[in-house]
Design brief:
Strand content: under 5%
Number of domains: 1
Number of helices: 5
Number of strands: 2
Helix content: 55-70%
Largest sheet: 2 strands, antiparallel
């Protein structure tokens, strides 16, 4: 099952990077919100930030060196690509470790409970 999960994770990575690279500069700054909600770039930054949040709680060593985007900051395409690649790789390691039951320096990685996913 871990091979299939990682294949799906890598497919998700490729699709999201394809989207980030394919959206125009103007498109990255667009938002449907009339109340100042996130533009497209900030939506992708939000995905990255959520990954870091879960890594901070469950595998802090994998979150080291990865930076959150400020909530009102609309990152550039290049910043998104770099951040997205880094958080995708870290989450990939986390998933492999959790599925394999690998210890983290004497401490088990904490997986997700159903409650934490809702």
């Amino acid at each position: 099952m871990s091979d299939e999960l990682l294949e799906g994770w890598n497919t998700n990575r490729r699709i999201n990077l394809w989207l980030i690279e394919g959206v125009s500069e103007q498109g990255l700054r667009c938002s449907l919100s009339t109340r100042g909600g996130r533009d497209v770039a900030r939506q992708f930054a939000h995905v990255h930030n959520n990954r870091l949040h879960h890594l901070d709680k469950r595998a802090p060593d994998l979150a080291e060196g990865l930076e959150n985007f400020e909530s009102k900051h609309s990152p550039s395409r290049e910043q998104l690509i770099v951040a997205y690649e880094a958080s995708t790789a870290a989450m990939g390691v986390f998933l492999v470790d959790v599925l394999g039951g690998s210890p983290n320096e004497g401490d088990s990685r904490r997986g997700f409970s159903r409650r934490s996913l809702t």
